[in-house]
Amino acid sequence: MTADDIPTAPETKSDVASMTNAGDITWRDGNVPFSPHFGDVYYSPKNGLAETRYVFLEGNNLPAAWQDIENFTIGETGFGSGLNFLAAWQAWSQDHDKSKRLHFVSVEKYPLARDHMMRAHQNWPELSEFSAELGDIWPTETMLPGTHRFILGNGAVSITLMIGDANKCWSGYEGDIDCWFLDGFSPSRNPDMWAPSLFAALAVASSPHGATLATFSAARIVRDGLESAGFAVSKRKGFEYKRDMITATFPARTMQSDGRNRFHFTDDPWFNLPKNRTAKSVAIIGGGMAGAACADALRSRGCDVTIFEKRDQLANAASGNPIGMIEPYFTADDAIMGRFFEAGFRFSHRKIKRLADDGLIDAGFCGVLDLATSARKQERQEGLLARLADKPDLIQEMSRDEASACFGLPVPMGGVFYPSAGWVSPPSFVRALTNGIETHLSTTIADIGDTQQGKTLISSDGRAFGPYDSVIIAGATETSTLSQTKWLVDQLIPVRGQISYCPETLIAKLYDSANIKCVLSYKGHITPARDGMHVFGATFLRDDEQTDLRDTDHAQNINQLGKIFPDIAERLSSTNLNGRAALRTTTQDHLPVIGPAPDFEQYLSAYPDLDKGKKGARYINAPYHKDVYICTGFGARGLIGAPLAAEILASEICDMPLPLEKVLMDAVHPARFIVRGLKRRQITA
What does pTM read for this prediction? Predict the structure, then answer.
């Protein structure tokens, strides 16, 4: 961005008054973005790239600091135009001795639209290769508050971008940052960002092995804030005509035997994640969507992956349905479930679209039309529209006539339309994710054992596999048959779902100009035709683990379809429909189970009096089954949950920056059920 002494003439009062959003920008000197709200440019119009290299790269001893190590993580306090990231990525890519992977964790309260960002990059043609790749994955739609994960450089580079206030975002992030780019609009123009709470959060998020920091500013508020947070501050000659800039170091921290920082205790050590060595080999139990996504995420990090599936093919359960909706799950408030699945949809959308664009999977982003089929649903949609009223790229209100035109057939009511949603073929997705990965079919794993070399798997017929550095249990209800996870038996709920197939010719005969153009969601759903069939349904029957095809379930699907299209339903018979039944696994709180496998008995021993409200510092770190992880419980939202869950687990296993803020990580942590039960006295030691 810019230093205090870069001359930036203020906008006129009329110009400022016309700006209605703090994130709005104007342009200076052709392609230099300027913020009227902060009265500052995003970078020097003459030599922004040279300043970035001098201040942030040289100021943090880069490239030397990232050489000959596995992972290197840069933290930043203002992403802005992305110039700092592009400069770091270019320098890293050109270094023969670079780390195997580069991670960039940043914050931005007002993210630039893609077109604006790409225009800002035109000043630096030497970065065009990197700018183009960033632009390809940068969302065209609005980026809602929360954490966004982007993958670049064939999987070797990641951006973790937190949308929101820098103080709040960094205070809610747990990570190991190796060096800091302390950047943002200058302290004189944006003093709220350069607060003591920010410097304290940077110290907490710094690597236990120590961290460096550089910033263009030499303001007193910055020096004092860094020193009070524990940084050792030095002055350095500023860039070109600037007198001074700051560099700093944060010392290595002494860790206790349980892995905790002696000088920083969390309030909830029962959710602290284990500190792992970087895994090289991982076994995955389960060959559905969750297992496939985990395999792909780990492979991209250089792990040797082996999948074990009890059936004779992958994607045998709900992941085997011919078409699945990929639809965002928005909530009218800041609910945890909405935040997790919003993040999941964003991550899945990018991954699926990339694979579809490359011709590797069957998918279509035709949008999803969600009808207001009840007063309760209409009230919910009104809440969504109120929250997202200025974001038509995410959600659009539609009248009955508009909805009919959008769908392609007359519908009896209006609703909302999600333009970035659509459908995907789950089997093709699973195949793309697992292509080339070692797989053992018809292999039921009965036990996970330990040896000095690592984890071993024992099949039900006595075969032994391994050793492996880590194991992920990514099955459905069979998760609770393994000794490490048997305590989940009361938390994982089987849900039977049956879909039905409607011939495309039937609808064509009824409607001369029939052309179903998008997915329709009601109390059920119907998809555009694929291979001559529309898929509609599905049933949702809890605690039923049978997968036989039933006329009664076809009848239920027909009944629901008939409330929207009675003419179609009248011509369907439950006795001659084809379809498919499969099991999904959900949880009591409708959030998935993602994370290290808790040692249930040890949890009871470690936290027997959580109901007393004692401070977290009084307790030990969370006890786990070493190197065993869980990934299950997605219910009907596997397509928008499993890929992000895989990214979470791969980041945990390979000791890389996490793709979500701590409150969401805790919400899906497997131990939440134990902790909740202890606090409510529903579980006792």
Answer: 0.91
